[in-house]
Amino acid sequence: MSTAATAARSPRSSGPGRITFARVLHSELIKTATVPSTVILLAVSFAVMVGLGALVAWGTVQLVNDPAAGPPEGFGTSAQSLAYDIPASGLPFGQLLIAALAVVLIGSEYTTGMIRTTMVAVPTRTPALLAKTLVITLIAFVLGIAAAFVTYLVAQPILSGSDLDFGLDAEGVLPSIINTGTVLALIAVMGVAIGALLRSTAGGVVTLVGALFVLPIILGLLSGLADWVEDAARFLPSNAATALVATQVQPDQFNQAEGGLILAGWAVVLLAAAVVVLKKRDV
Question: Which spans are transmembrane here (predicted)?
């Protein structure tokens, strides 16, 4: 009887119908691509990032054309240096929208009960979470690079009137465009992980908004109380993301590689915690 039971369970792990990571990944890709809200949110993210970059380019030109409105004395950043950062200028809103999408992808499964079907199909659980994470990570990476590159193209005609246009070979520009995708990919990992940990779409979105936008403001207000507060703020995900896409390293700030390692550290720790919790808790 034991042999018969084992034989009945074996098709899940062997034979043509066995569960493989490639098949789990394919199923997660189908689930993600066939949800209309996903496509709408990605289109909105792209449009907002490019539109914001165009506005920043226009504002930079106004600074050059109106010296009275230019950077204050001692600001230490030229208009050309500001222009180099324009391709990645839509990143803050891109982070917010991609983080929300990543949380929704996992949080909605808990809300609707779909997660039980997913875990029955993939009883080891971890491949399902990793496949979902990989899908949204790749989408976010491509979206970030595409949005930054189109922003670069849109900004050039605006900047050319003030001789601020530049080529992709300008200092730090091309790495900044690529790292815009890297930041969104790592933020997406954090979003899926927090969604899996909290099992709540609303709770996950609020937590990420707090970590990315509210906490830096609070620590900035408290930075005068103690030196360690300012030091701690440098390790926040939002500040690490800013360092990763910067075209120039500012004094007393992390460089691009250090910023990338810090942000990747946040993503890996949260994802590892999500895997452990997913394996131990009931769905």
Answer: 39-61, 90-108, 129-154, 174-198, 205-226, 259-278
Q: Give me Rg for the CA atoms of the chain.
A: 22
Instruction: Scan for tokens 């996903």, then name that residue.
Output: 38
Spell out the SS3 assignment of the chain. CHHHHHHHHHHHCCCCCCCCHHHHHHHHHHHHHCCHHHHHHHHHHHHHHHHHHHHHHHHHHHHHHCHHHCCCCCCCCCHHHHHHCHHHCCHHHHHHHHHHHHHHHHHHHHHHCHHHHHHHHCCCCHHHHHHHHHHHHHHHHHHHHHHHHHHHHHHHHHHHCCCCCCCCCCCCHHHHHHHHHHHHHHHHHHHHHHHHHHCCHHHHHHHHHHHHHHHHHHHHHHCCCCHHHHHHHCCCHHHHHHHHHCCCCCCCCCCHHHHHHHHHHHHHHHHHHHHHHHHHCCC
Question: Which residue, chain included where needed, has tokens 């109106």?
Answer: 66
pLDDT classification of 35: cutoffs 50, 70, 90? confident
Give the model confidence (pLDDT) of 73-91 as tens digits.
444 457 788 899 999 999 9
Nearest Cα neighbor of 198 from 123, 130, 106 is 106
d(CA 124, CA 140): 26
Neighbours of 186 (CB within 10 A): 27
The pTM assigned to this predicted structure is 0.88
Residue of 54, 20, 41, 57 lying closest to 96 (CA atoms): 41
pLDDT score at 71 = 53
Cβ count near 131 (within 10 Å)? 21
**CA–CA dist 55, 268 (Å, integer):** 34
pLDDT for 8: 43
